[in-house]
Amino acid sequence: MNKKNVFTEMEGTLNPDDEKKFRPNGSDYYNPEEFNKLVKARRSVRKFDGEPIPDDVSMNCLELGLLAPNSSNLQAYEFIRVRDKGMIEKLAEACFSQSAARTASELIVCIARTDKCLEHCNEMLLEFKKMEKETGIETPKVAKLYYEKLAPFVYNVGPFSLYAPFKWLFFTITGFFKVVPREPVSLSDVRTWSAKSCSLACENIMLAYRAHGYDTCPMEGFDSVRVKKILNLNRHQYIAMILGAGKCAPGGIYGPQLRFNKNKFIRTI
Ligand SMILES: Cc1cc2nc3c(=O)[nH]c(=O)nc-3n(C[C@H](O)[C@H](O)[C@H](O)COP(=O)(O)O)c2cc1C
Predict the structure, then answer these.
(1) Starting from the edge strand earliest in sequence, which strands make up the sheet with 106-113, in order?
(2) Cis peptide before 140 (omega within 30 of 0)
(3) C-alpha 218 to ligand 1 mean position (Å)
(4) Phi and psi at residue 105, in whole multiples of 5°?
(5) In this structure, which residue's CA is closest to atom 29 in ligand 1?
(6) Whether this model's pTM surpasses 0.85
(7) What structural domains does the chain harbor?
(8) Running along the chain, 269 residues long, what does each successive block of 10 average in pLDDT?
(9) Does ligand 1 have an atom closer than 6 angstroms to the CB of 234?
(10) Does the CB atom of residue 246 touch ligand 1 within 6 A?
(11) Ligand 1 centroid vs 188 CA: distance in angstroms?
């Protein structure tokens, strides 16, 4: 069994006294009632009143989106906030003219990036240096090594996915003998990888809008080729979803919140 890896090695490097510094207001937080209320208050709203959303509200929601957990903290996503009426109109047409897009005060185009691994690994190393200077807390060697060597290998399939077959072969063979990361080994895996983190950010954004008294509708009903053309996006920019946002107008909620029996989805073993 191979027990020595980046996860196990990080354990030995942590100083419990630093924890308060890393999460200054978090440890004592307890408010399940409010959180229940917030989650239950969010609904997909398909008709908005068109009134502008205050800039600070949208910015706060997007910033909270960036605080969602994300894979290796590489933040392989981006969010385009569309407020321009003409642009909303064009995009709404590419969203099959759905009213959730047509009537939205803002559209948030949520994009998973398949090309940011190396750039963000380097940026992380720079952040470590900055943090060390500011806090005096040294970054564990294993963390630096992770962003220098492992993450660039694991989350990257090279230009035109050239490394993909070699990665697949490497992990398949070594996987017979030890625990290995199986994905991402293809471009479509990388897309899934970044879309996971992007979608978690989307949920934070939607809950944040609700907390501010605004509503959202996540949409995958759009013509991605047309949307990419309108926004001049490239092949590394995969649109995970588009969020319509605004204040709910009468008739904006189409029905009660329906979910199948929870026993179908939740298994405890
Ligand atoms: C990835 C994703 C794509 C969706 N696409 C659309 C869409 O294109 N149009 C739409 O009206 N609703 C869309 N929805 C909203 C769902 O229909 C909605 O979440 C579901 O019916 C449950 O309702 P609730 O969000 O009010 O709980 C989408 C939701 C998700 C998560």
Answers:
(1) 77-82, 106-113, 237-246, 215-219
(2) no
(3) 5
(4) -75, -35
(5) 218
(6) yes
(7) 43-251 (3.40.109.10)
(8) 76 76 79 97 97 98 98 98 98 98 98 97 97 90 96 94 94 96 94 98 98 98 98 98 98 97 97
(9) no
(10) no
(11) 23
